[in-house]
Design a protein that fits this description.
alpha+beta, Immunoglobulin-like, 4 domains, 4-stranded mixed sheet
């Protein structure tokens, strides 16, 4: 209590001297001074703080305040769980440090611990769950609470934020109400509880040492590819990952001319569409870890017309297995009477190896080639045939 203004000090002491006796007269059959238990916790916490401020000048009054607070807290234990009010219990905890409050507080917090993050829908509910789990970790020093807080944080980032604004999404009506019931327009377009949620996220980040943006999974859509009309194109999202560890889920997005065999797997395939002239197609990949979603990564598929390729003969050449591991077999079909040179190139056009093929069926060892997608260029006397293979580990 500030001693610089003795009039204010003396007035406050007089109020406190009469306050306790007045409140005692309001006790119900359970010995509690107010039917709203949250107000009782606040009164108890205030009494503790006040007692510490006046203890030197008014030790008897200070003791009276402490006794009042202790009696009210004990009375609330008697009507548990009706007397449960987590925010106010935390207020009392920080004001008093009472060890006998911890079992009740832990029981209340553990009920929230069992809540499922995906079931929360409002900024306020996310804020409360994140805040209480983080504070529970501070009080009880059990890792499960900070882990649970992270679960709520990750769900909040996915549900309450969008790609265009750092504010939580709207999930309540645009008309909010002031304390006296007067409606007003929420012209910031942020739902009730947004400020609480931002504070709760900051509290968690400080306690966990977590940089939130670095926790999003990362999508890698693979290397750009140059293909011809009708080629099989093999996409590769295997380099995608989650900083949290564990698996990720895949979502590929392609232009309307492309038809994937499956847009939710790591290595989908499609046939290069018909084009009249060379054209670039953007193929996007987004991954998620079940909660957070990555930014999109784009791979460019450059499709060229089949100029200079004998397609009738090409249909009879087969390369198998594909995907392959240690070897490939080439069946030339009716082209076996010709002398053929085979170049193996990376998707960027770098020459890896060259083979001369003289028989209808030829098996080539490729174990020395790193995993990836490769172009096979078959050079005949008067034309070139291009095929693709996928080399696996």
């Amino acid at each position: 209590m500030h001693s610089e203004n003795p009039v204010v000090r003396d007035s406050l002491i007089t109020i406190m001297e009469t306050m306790v006796d007045y409140l005692e007269s309001w006790k119900d059959e359970n010995g509690i001074i107010h039917r709203y238990y949250g107000q009782v916790y606040k009164a108890a916490a205030g009494a503790y703080v006040a007692s510490s401020r006046i203890n030197e000048d008014k030790p008897e009054l200070a003791q009276k305040l402490v006794q009042f607070a202790d009696n009210q807290i004990t009375a609330l234990y008697g009507v548990w769980p009706e007397g449960k009010d987590i925010p106010k219990m935390l207020t009392v905890w920080y004001a008093t440090g009472r060890e006998d409050l911890k079992p009740y507080l832990k029981q209340a917090v553990d009920e929230l611990y069992n809540d499922v993050a995906q079931n929360l829908t409002t900024a306020s509910s996310f804020a409360n769950h994140i805040r209480y789990m983080t504070i529970a970790f501070q009080i009880f020093q059990e890792d499960k609470y900070i882990t649970k807080a992270e679960e709520f944080v990750r769900a909040a980032l996915l549900k309450m934020f969008d790609d265009y604004s750092p504010l939580p999404r709207i999930n309540t009506a645009d008309i909010l109400y002031s304390g006296n019931g007067t409606g007003y327009v929420n012209f910031y377009h942020a739902p009730g509880g947004s400020d609480d949620l931002m504070w709760a996220l900051a509290l968690y980040a400080r306690e966990a040492g977590w940089i939130l943006v670095d926790k999003k999974p990362v999508a890698h859509a693979g290397s750009n590819q140059m293909v011809n009309v009708g080629d099989s194109v093999f996409l590769n999202g295997s380099a995608s990952y989650s900083p949290q560890g564990g698996s990720v889920n895949y979502t590929w997005k392609v232009p309307g001319e492309i038809s994937l065999n499956d847009s939710t797997i790591v290595n989908p395939t499609f046939l290069a569409p018909h084009v009249e002239s060379t054209r670039t197609f953007d193929v996007g990949l987004v991954v998620n870890d079940g909660v957070l979603v990555s930014d999109a990564d784009i791979v460019y598929i450059i499709v060229s017309p089949s100029v200079g390729i004998n397609t009738e003969s090409g249909k009879e050449i087969s390369v198998f297995p594909n995907p392959c591991v240690d070897f490939i077999t080439i069946d030339l079909g009716t082209n076996s009477q010709q002398s053929i040179k085979l170049d193996v190139l990376t998707m960027s056009g770098r020459l890896i190896d060259t083979f001369d093929i003289h028989s209808k069926n030829t098996t080539l060892e490729i174990h020395q080639i790193p995993p990836g997608v490769y172009t096979l260029m078959f050079h005949f006397n008067n034309y070139t045939l291009i095929k693709k293979i996928v080399k696996m580990d």
